[in-house]
Amino acid sequence: MGKRVAVLLAGCGLYDGTEIHEASAVLVHLSREGAQAEVFAPNIPQMHVVDHVRGQPTPEQRNVLVESARIARGNIKDLAQLDVKGMDALIIPGGFGVAKNLSTWATQGKNCSVSREVEDVLREFHAAQKPIGLCCISPVLAAKLFPGCEVTVGHDTECDQWPYAKTAESMKELGCKHVNKHVTEIHVDPRNRLVTTCAFMCNAPIHDIHDGIGNMVREVVRLA
């Protein structure tokens, strides 16, 4: 039987939830590696709902679990049901939902808090020395919770290709080591069992982002 990997989602959509292409890439590559993906999301209200055509918030209210179920084709569980003992690894795709619904990074940066439920899950996987895969903005969760850890969100010098590079500086201020990597590359922190890749933190062709996530997934499954 393949490795069982928990995939934690934060809604559905770049600006207010999980980045859909990243989540899809994670699930595709887990399937390719023969791993069994089990999808979870917290049963909480979203911070807000964004109109993805206009890029502006709307008055709507939505639920993170209900919206995440769109990506999981309905095959999803409340994060409260996640039994870490029964899992071999954890992967968290990116998207602004990580910074808005799983934490308050979007509004508070390095001074953010991580949702108690999400923090508990991450700490339990970490304590059990089970690998954690993080891509795009989600490595900020590790930077906040595991001082001294090593991660990548791409590059630390802002330019057209790296519009979110200031994130790396904020993570360094939390005491973690940021390692510059290209979009198809990963960084492995063997001590903390973290595997990270930058994904859409880089303005890159979508196939390069897909390949980088594939490398991350492959290493997570190998370590599990």
From TrEMBL:
<dbReference type="InterPro" id="IPR029062">
    <property type="entry name" value="Class_I_gatase-like"/>
</dbReference>
<protein>
    <submittedName>
        <fullName>GAL3A protein</fullName>
    </submittedName>
</protein>
